[in-house]
Design a protein that fits this description.
Elements: H1 2-17, H2 21-39, H3 47-58, H4 63-74, E1 85-92, E2 98-105, H5 108-121, E3 125-126, E4 136-145, H6 146-149, H7 153-163, E5 167-169, E6 174-179, H8 184-193, E7 200-207, H9 215-230, E8 234-239, H10 245-252
Antiparallel strand pairs: 1-2, 1-3, 2-8, 4-6, 4-7, 5-6
Helix pairs in contact: 1-10, 2-3, 2-4, 9-10
Length: 255
């Protein structure tokens, strides 16, 4: 888990460096719209919406934008571009690395065409539903920045376990709390009630078996991963490439 968490940090850092704030904002706003459409516009009654709003606030998404996204999701506001919905795609990248891609889209034809093109132009191929899904397990991931909470590591771990955490990783500047899929919102609320400031909370997919690759294959896969993450419709990219220190060093040094 530490490797995949650090890869998230690298992505976030590069997004700011490359001035891709608009992509980040759109990801949050689409998630808010989908959450509001599926569970209603009241965050107190809709845990997914509540989490989406808090995640957006942590990345400084303007309040007005958040409110518009909620209204769009509930149907109070029609901007004429269609409703956004969740979808997933599966496939393989260079070296046989498995990819599970989550998207939020208002045009499935556009999105599947883009996903297929990115795969084929980077040495991979789009698979069928279920072709790699069995290689991943869905979990919750709650991220808490250490210095913002000023807490002793051992104390935090004990309280997080009592709150229902399955695992705690102290990678870099963050506590990364892994939870069961169904218990993420409950654990998040418990930690908030203990006055911990939540950086983000989201459902992720953890590879059950990781694949170690040579540096050149790692570079090819990082290029493919970055290309997917540049696509406006793509919200998350998960792979089973082994994210050890050597592999992550390649990502950090890529332009």
């Amino acid at each position: 888990m530490a490797g995949h968490s650090k890869w998230s940090n690298i992505k976030h850092k590069k997004a700011k460096e490359d001035k891709k704030r608009n992509k980040l904002f759109n990801k949050h706003l689409r998630e808010i719209s989908v959450a509001a459409r599926e569970g209603g516009g009241d965050p107190e009654m809709n845990p997914r919406l509540d989490t989406a709003i808090e995640n957006a606030k942590s990345d400084n998404v303007p309040k007005d934008n958040i409110e518009r996204a909620i209204k769009k999701g509930t149907g109070e506001l029609d901007e004429g571009d269609g409703a956004y919905e969740d979808a997933t795609y599966e496939g393989y990248g260079p070296g046989g690395i498995a990819y599970f891609i989550e998207v939020t889209t208002n045009n499935y034809n556009r999105t599947v065409g883009s996903i297929r093109h990115i795969f084929t132009s980077h040495g991979g191929n789009l698979g069928t539903d279920g072709s790699v899904d069995y290689l991943f397990e869905q979990k919750g991931m709650i991220r808490i920045k250490k210095d913002e909470n000023n807490v002793e590591e051992e104390e935090f771990m004990l309280e997080a376990i009592d709150a229902g955490a399955e695992d705690i990783d102290t990678d870099g500047d963050f506590f990364n709390v892994t939870t069961g899929r169904e218990s993420m919102y409950e654990v998040r609320d418990a930690l908030e009630n203990l006055n911990y400031e939540i950086e983000s909370a989201e459902l992720i997919r953890i590879p059950m078996t990781e694949v170690k690759v040579e540096p050149e294959v790692a570079k090819s896969n990082f290029k493919l991963m970055n290309k997917f993450e540049d696509d406006d419709d793509v919200s998350n990219v998960f792979t089973n490439m082994k994210m050890d220190k050597e592999t992550l060093a390649i990502a950090e040094n890529m332009d």
